[in-house]
Amino acid sequence: MPTRVPVLENGEQEVIILAGIKKNGLATERVIYPFYKQFVQTIDFKPGQIDTLNPTITYLDICKFPWLEDFEDQRISLEGSGSFTTIDSMYITSDPFEVYNYDAGKNRFSGKVQMDTGLQFFENSSIQLFDLPRKGQEIYLELNYKTDVELVAGIYPITGSFVSGVPIVNLFPTNGAWRKVYVSLKEDVNNPAYQGAEFRVVFNARSNTSGKIPEILFDNIKLIHF
């Protein structure tokens, strides 16, 4: 998008547009996002005429959001969770050059992690435990991020005192640009080994540099399912 699509129809026709994503950030895994409404518009087609559509996509009314973190309340719903980390602090930035889509109004804050030189390990997980659906429903983690190092997104299944992290997606350095990723959690949440577990969302990263101090920025974290 934007793109021009030939239509071999005349007269009034209903046009339906379905919003697609790259599942787990993979260009080879393009799927229709199940949580978005269809965009529907009727157009009176005429031969040789070019019509313009400006689709607006919103979430379905039945979507559930057990976790929303946009940092706009200046609180952080993540905490250090790794036993072998050297960096476990995330803080809030209001620097217009760091905040996602900064507009001095609705978007004023983002989450920031500043690594250090040398060999460093970072990990944070959601403070809240989530009881996620187990009957094959779609479950996704949405995230805007900007990172100088490889960032891993995954889950912690919590079953009693045993905790073992499950990495799901490796997110590569973004070269100074913000990116959006949709991480599918359904496959791992429904693993029979995690029956009865509750889950935390986890992010971790590793760096080893003697030059520029690496940074990771987060915004608009959403956990979503039906």
Plain-language structure description:
This protein is an all-beta fold. It is about 0% helix and about 45% strand. The protein has one helix at about 185-190, and strands at about 10-15, 20, 30, 40-45, 65-70, 80, 90-95, 110-115, 120-125, 140-145, 150-160, 160-165, 165-170, 180-185, 200-210, 215-225. Strands 5, 7, 8, 10, 14 and 16 form a six-stranded antiparallel beta sheet that branches. A hairpin with a 7-residue loop joins β2 (about 20) and β3. The protein is globular, with a radius of gyration of 20 Å. The mean pLDDT is about 95.
Order of helices and strands: EEEEEEEEEEEEEEHEE
Estimated share of beta-strand residues: 35-45%
**Helix/sheet category:** mainly beta
What is the terminal-to-terminal distance?
28 Å
Rounded average pLDDT: 95
What features would you highlight for this structure?
six-stranded antiparallel sheet, 226 residues, 16 strands, mainly beta, 1 helix
List the helices and strands and how they pair.
Elements: E1 11-17, E2 20-22, E3 30-32, E4 39-45, E5 64-69, E6 78-80, E7 91-93, E8 110-114, E9 118-126, E10 139-147, E11 151-159, E12 162-163, E13 166-171, E14 179-184, H1 186-189, E15 198-209, E16 215-225
Antiparallel strand pairs: 1-4, 2-3, 5-16, 6-9, 7-8, 8-16, 9-15, 10-14, 10-16, 11-12, 11-13, 11-15
Short description:
The chain is an all-beta fold and 226 residues long.
